[in-house]
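Notebook entry, structure prediction.
Reason for the run: the old model in the group folder had no record of what sequence produced it. Starting over properly, with the input documented here first.
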Amino acid sequence: MTRGGPTSARLLRRSDIPRWVRVDTDGAVWTSHANGGFPMTGERRAESQRSDQYLSVYLGVGDIYLAHRVVYAWFHGEAPKGVLVRHLDDNGRNNRPSNLALGDNSANMLDAKLAGAFAKKMTPQIVREIREAYQRGARQSVLADRYCIGRPTVHKIVHRQTWVHV
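New structure, fully documented this time:
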């Protein structure tokens, strides 16, 4: 398998996925491999949160893939080169096999539009709700999911780097 970066869109076949990795029907990727020489008992989730809305998965030395590409390969086979694996609901953390489909950039943008991604508008009321929930102990990742915005946006709101006037 060729090496690539964490956003690599290189071909991935089910046979490329190590035997110590498995994918469940909810799209969660699990590993029972003792990475880095640390002993492991049982399985653990293999996904890592990226700075955007997507999850990445470590498949070996230098082999980091977007989790939705791993799930797609596991259940549907390889995605042809240059073809996107799309999230039909525009939620990059929802990697259920039924939520993934192949397509081009225009189909991906249509998915986002149908899911309301372009209709999301931040208002002073939402900003206040986010700040209040954060002060009560809500995690930024939970708030990002709740309001369908990125974690960096939540961070800037709660630390008053944006929406300073509210």
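Summary: Residues 1-7 have pLDDT under 50 and may be disordered.
The old model has been moved to the deprecated folder.
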